[in-house]
Write a structure and sequence with these properties.
Layout: H1 2-27, E1 29-30, H2 37-41, E2 45-51, E3 57-63, E4 72-77, E5 81-82, H3 88-96, E6 99-104, H4 118-135, E7 143-148, H5 150-161, E8 166-170, H6 176-183, H7 189-192, H8 200-203, E9 210-215, H9 223-232, E10 236-242, H10 250-254, H11 256-265
Parallel strand pairs: 1-5, 4-6, 4-7, 7-8, 8-9, 9-10
Antiparallel strand pairs: 2-3, 3-6
């Protein structure tokens, strides 16, 4: 019996060690290369290179306005999967409203060098902001951060360091462990995670005008988590609950309500 118990313990420890080693491959799911900017994102889109403080050169798309120029830039930070090509619809709709949009791919995403991590993604959005200010004519008081799901954690951290003119958090979670525990209830997720990606803590220090948007039927990030983020935000303008919407439904990706929320922050 003792040998059996020891054997089971050894198997469990081995599995936990394996999960510790490969967890970032489970969390971050890069897609392939998005293709050429103008062919995918339209004639006002151009390929740009965003240099990071640790020596990486990240590919991104800067999509210029097709409607009357508002003089407002949007720094978009995506979720944990895919590449910038999947958010072309959002960029085109915002461009039609007069915004300039930077679609950033993190390190390891969209053909970029490096491997994603919490620290790395924080460096990437800092670099994106610096690029917009130094090379794209953005002004700090006319710059909006738009974070989607995991990206909401990334831009909330950036907003603590460099307050934006407005902050849109789409489907934010309390922290990565909170949502991870829901999907892996049989694992000690909070003890195992290397990357914390906390939103609740940092958002309490952000006083920029904030809108929290989320789906009422989100099966990846439960609505209660997004509502908790909204409740903790001192700069909250309003919440935008989209009844019946799941995490990746079109209405949350680039629907009228999302576009209107960016316009509201950009006024």
């Amino acid at each position: 019996m003792a040998r059996t118990v020891l054997g089971l313990v050894a198997v469990v420890l081995l599995m936990l060690a394996l999960l510790w080693a490969v967890q970032r491959r489970i969390i971050y799911l890069p897609g392939g290369h998005p293709g050429p900017a103008s062919a995918v994102a339209g004639p006002t889109a151009r390929e740009v290179t965003v240099p990071t403080e640790d020596g990486l050169e990240l590919g991104a798309w800067l999509v210029g306005p097709t409607g009357p120029d508002r003089g407002v830039h949007v720094l978009f930070a995506a979720g944990n999967a895919g590449h910038r090509g999947y958010r072309v619809g959002l960029a085109r709709r915002l461009a039609a409203e007069g915004f300039s949009v930077l679609l950033l791919d993190y390190r390891g995403f969209g053909g970029n060098p490096g491997s994603p991590s919490e620290r790395g993604l924080a460096r990437d959005v800092r670099a994106a902001r610096r690029f917009l200010l130094e090379h794209a004519g953005a002004r700090p008081d006319r710059l909006i951060y738009f974070g989607e799901s995991l990206g909401a954690a990334v831009v909330t951290g950036l907003a603590v360091e460099h307050p934006p003119a407005g902050l849109l958090l789409r489907s934010p979670f309390r922290d990565l462990a909170s949502v991870g525990q829901l999907h892996y209830p049989f694992l000690p997720v909070r003890l195992m995670l290397r990357d914390r990606l906390d939103v609740i803590g940092p958002i309490q220090r952000v006083r920029a005008p904030t809108i929290v948007a989320y789906g009422g039927a989100d099966r990846i990030v439960p609505p209660e988590q997004s509502e908790a983020v909204a409740a903790a935000a001192p700069g909250l303008v309003r919440t935008l609950r989209l009844p019946g919407a799941d995490h990746n439904d079109p209405v949350l990706l680039d629907g009228d309500e999302i576009i209107a929320a960016v316009v509201e922050l950009g006024l």
